[in-house]
Amino acid sequence: MMEAGSFFYRRAGAAAGILALAACHADQSASQANSTATSLEAAAIEAGIVADPGNTDPTGLYVRDRDRICVVPSATAFRIGISVDYGDTYHCSAQGEATRAGETLHVELADTPGCNFDAKFEGDRIAFPGRLPDACQKACSSRGSLTGLNVERMSDSPSEAGALRDGRGRMLCASVK
To answer: How far is residue 90's CA from residue 108's CA, in Å, rounded to a whole number?
Structure first.
């Protein structure tokens, strides 16, 4: 009977050892995967397959479904216009200025005082944070929101971006004359 018990303990010990080795290998694989992903991204940027967000001009028209952002150069930084359309009843529309620092676009909406925030710029994508100042709600109808807006570049043409209109026909990034 003693042999059966020791056999059980040897098998349990071997199983625990195998699980420990697997866990160590999983940690190593995760760090290798992160390193590989970073290396692949760097290689894709170097090959020109992926835009380098650090060297990319944010000028353009960004779109996702019925959400739109235009960004065009201005005398001091960039003009930015935002249109979010949830249908006939709910919408958001705002205009202002954006300055860029690396992968951050600091947005100040002139027509919505107090609505200032940092958006993430990733070369061909702009993402608003999940939490915005309460003042940003003034840019929207009752249940609309700019929170978490996430759009991808459709065009890098300043003239196409400058032609963006909101649901009421207002030009959001037109040249100031």
So the answer is: 22
Q: How far apart are CA 26 and CA 41, in angstroms?
A: 22
Calculate ∠ Cα 69-141-108, nearest 5°: 45
Model confidence pLDDT, tens digit, residues 89-146:
889 999 999 999 999 999 999 999 999 999 999 989 999 999 999 999 999 998 899 9
The tens digit of pLDDT for each residue in 29-87 reads 555 655 665 678 778 777 867 666 667 899 999 999 999 999 999 988 999 999 999 88
Given a contact cutoff of 8 angstroms between Cβ atoms, the answer to whether 74 and 97 are in contact is yes
State pTM to two decimals: 0.71
Measured between its terminal Cα atoms, the distance across the chain in Å is 96
Decide the pairing of beta strands 60-64 and 150-155.
antiparallel
Q: What is the DSSP string of 69-137?
A: EEEEE-SSSEEEEEEEE-SSS-EEEEEEEEEEETTEEEEE-TTSTT-EEEEEE-SSEEE--S---GGGG
As a whole number of angstroms, the distance between CA 76 and CA 96 comes to 12
